[in-house]
Amino acid sequence: MSETPPFDFPRFQSLLRARLVGRSLVYRPVVGSTMDIARREAEEGAIHGTAVLAEEQTAGRGRRGRSFFSPPGANIYVTFVLRCSLEIHRSLPLRIPVAVAEAIRGTVPSAVIKWPNDVWVGRRKVCGMLIDAELGGAGPVAFPGIGINVNFDPSIQPELRDIATSLAAVLGQPVDREALLARLCNELERWLEAPRGEAQARFRELNGFLGAEVHISPVGGEPYAATAVDIDDDGRLVVRLPGGETEAVTAADVTVRPTST
């Protein structure tokens, strides 16, 4: 991989249209996790919309405590500090994936959400998200951590070859990280302010695997096969079981079953 130019902050700021999101930006060349830094910043009074950006994470986290591969200088690793009303706070699992997917679609229009909070192009992951949230004495605060494979193609790693890719690999050319991060901030502010019904509808529209055969691995339960059929108003995945009955999935890993050839 060729050397990546340093992040151009003046260019990012020139493309930023959001009033609040991204206006305060904390930058670190290397961190354990941007989420840890964001929490520390929040404890010290960081304002709504503060973004914590790092070139490299040494202890990035994914869902269920998994590690998140975070090589230096090529991708976007960012966590936001969001201080929203309780109503908005409760609907962040709808709003944030929509904002991230819309930002990525500005570069790769075929990007879709894979429930609950990944973004895929084709059948490969280009982005993962993890939303930590809490209700404290100062009101709700959330820390959505977002990792986007921008210019480093993770498929060079054998274990990721068939399940992950990068935007640059899809396009066949480098992607402008500054423009992508600015667009992410702009879209995040837009979808935080959108009516809940609009966010619900767009979350359903952007889920790209409805109709697919899936494996459901519920927390503490046995895996089972089903067909993804809908997203309900609370953002839960509705699946149809082999017997024809349906159920809403709340907390589970969902793996798309390969199509037969």
Can you tag this structure with a few keywords?
12 strands, 26% helix, 261 residues, seven-stranded mixed sheet, alpha+beta, five-stranded antiparallel sheet, globular, 7 helices
Describe this structure in words.
There is one protein chain. The radius of gyration is 18 Å and the shape is globular. A hairpin with a 5-residue loop joins β10 and β11. The protein is built from seven helices and twelve strands. It has a seven-stranded mixed β-sheet with strand order 1-2-3-7-6-5-4, sandwiched between helices. A five-stranded antiparallel β-sheet has the order 11-10-9-8-12, with no helix packed on it. Helices cover 26% and strands 30% of the residues.
Q: What's the tally of helices? A: 7
Strand line-up across the major sheet: 1-2-3-7-6-5-4
Shape: globular
Distance N to C terminus = 34 Å
Regions with little confidence, pLDDT below 50 for 5+ residues = 62-67
The residue fraction in helices comes out at 25-40%
Structural class: alpha+beta
Q: Topology as H/E string?
A: HEHEEHHEEEEHHHEEEEE
Largest sheet: 7 strands, mixed
Determine the mean pLDDT: 90
Q: Over the alpha carbons, how many angstroms does the gyration radius reach? A: 18 Å
Number of strands: 12
Percent of residues in beta strands: 25-35%
